Amino acid sequence: MVIRKPEIVPSSEITPEHLYTNRRQFLFSAAGVAAGLQVAGKPGAYQVNETKTPEKDVTTYNNFYEFGTQKDQPAKTSSGFRTKPWKVSVEGLVKRPQQYNLEDLIKGFTLEDRVYRMRCVEGWSMVIPWMGIPLASIIKRLEPLPSARFVEFTTLLDPDQMWGQQRGNLKWPYVEGLRMDEATNPLTFIATGLYGKPLPPQNGAPLRLVIPWKYGFKGIKSIVKIRFVEKQPRGTWEIQAPDEYGFYANVNPEVDHPRWSQATESRLDGTFISSFSKRPTLMFNGYGEYVAQMYSGMDLRRNF
Questions:
Q1: In b/e form, how buried is each residue of 176-185, taking b as 16+ CB within 10 angstroms?
Q2: Fewer CB atoms < 10 Å away: N or C end of the chain?
């Protein structure tokens, strides 16, 4: 299988110029998290030179069960979601466990543009221009102890706002986790915006995890807790259906979901025909050059 190396694309192709030049104003409006942030002067190193999915599709076709199980429900039912103020609790095996105001957690970091392929386990994919911060930078600031081997993330639990949490279809709050080497891989990203704008609620405002070589359910949204642990955490979907959703969730065309094939995908690109056309699924979603070494010697069928 040929794995294509991502190519750098100019920031001017990612963000409209008037938004790019006023990025500091955008940051201030992004749930009040702008204080001290610097703006990247060049695009990140991991862009893909592919047609980006239109913003309308990115923001109206979502998996976010806290706002409904149908793809169009999150955009329709989350408009009143409150992201100010926002606090993130840092817990577990870390030098100074504490609760951060979001603006303090990310203060002083450079905001980067990254265009990533994103692959959903149901067989559809997008190419999304994100804005945010490498997770490795945040982890370095938090100073986990040497005994911390995994990072666990938790979504906000607020059934009054997130009406889907009033239903028992999943165990709430939503939880996901990564191995420490996965969390600190340069590709792993905490997104605070997309298409030059703050993250809308349906896409995980005010901050969400982006791991482009994994299936979308690993990209936990609206994060309120980061916990460093020694033992492998269990994610919400892993608990819900362990024979269908494993801990690693690496994009792998050779490992089918029990109810459908993962060998092909439909790329949402704004055209009617894209919903029906199929393309081969790339191992690690095409990012093998950057991540395959982390799984050397592992049975990726067993560790799915």
A1: bbbbeebbbb
A2: N
Q: What is the pLDDT of residue 45?
A: 55
pLDDT of residue 24: 42
d(CA 69, CA 64): 7
CA distance 163 to 151: 27
What are the backbone angles phi and psi of residue 109, rounded to the nearest 5°?
A: -80, 155
Q: For 71-95, give the DSSP string.
A: TTHHHHH-TT---SS-EEEEEESBS
Q: What is the CATH number of domain 11-295?
A: 3.90.420.10
Tokens linked to 124 = 């559809």
Taking phi over 0 as left and psi of -120 to 50 as alpha, with beta for the rest, 125 belongs to: beta
For residue 6, what are its two tokens? Answer: 């991502």
Cα-flanking dihedrals φ and ψ of residue 167, to 5°? -100, 155
Nearest to 31 by CA among 192, 172, 256: 192
Q: Which helix (H) or strand (E) holds 103?
A: helix 102-105
Residue 17's Cβ-count burial label (10 Å; 0-12, 13-18, 19+) is exposed
Q: Enumerate helices (H) and strands (E) in the chain, giving the number of each.
A: 9, 13
Question: What's the rounded Cα separation, in Å, for the pair 205 and 155?
Answer: 11
**Residue 180: in which H helix or E strand, if any?**
helix 180-183
- The SS3 assignment for 146 reads coil
Query: Can you read off the two tokens belonging to residue 298?
Result: 């592992």
Residues in the chain where the model's pLDDT stays below 70 = 1-46, 271-276
d(CA 153, CA 143): 16
Break the chain into its structural domains and give their ranges.
11-295
Q: Which two tokens stand for residue 123?
A: 């067989």
Q: What is the pLDDT of residue 104?
A: 96
